[in-house]
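Mods, move this if it's the wrong board.
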Amino acid sequence: MIATDCVAPPAAEECSNKEVQVLRRFFSFLVLVACCCVNGCGYHLSRPESSLVAGGKTISIPVFANKSYRPNLEAILTGSMVDEFAMRSGGRVMAEDAADLVLSGTIVSYSKTPVSYTARDTIKEYRATMTMEATLREKKTRKVLWKGSDSLSQDFPATPIVSVQQNNVDIIALQQNSEDAAIREICRKLARQVYQKITEDF
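Not the wrong board. Structure tokens:
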């Protein structure tokens, strides 16, 4: 009886090697797919946090100029800006000599117009509208980093005249309170929009 060596033919050995290579490539592909699902394969573009916040920049907000006919608007708007930026930036609102950035601005106009009337043709509601512009600069270089403008409106009720004996001083005071509340709301919204626009573009 003649003994034979159990050696696979060359063709079979080559075929086996190819199968191993295919299997390795297949498993490598599966691993790659898993990485893509978990990590996005490095192609996921996430928006970086604004450098105004992430970079630890400090900002100064001097009192805005006021070109409108109504006094004290600049104090209300500037206060709203300071509150908004301090709250959202973790309190990094500083005096101008200690800040990295300076946000300056101007109230361009303010108006109050009737928008609705009662059945007796008296004013039922007013609309307050404020337009402003602002500029963000790097303090050291004076380079303009952002510039924009915005306009917002807020309706508020007119004070009804209940009787002819009603005190005119009381009517004026109530009307003034309603308008002041509308102005504060406008300034609060303008400050929020300015912050959002700056952090989107900065």
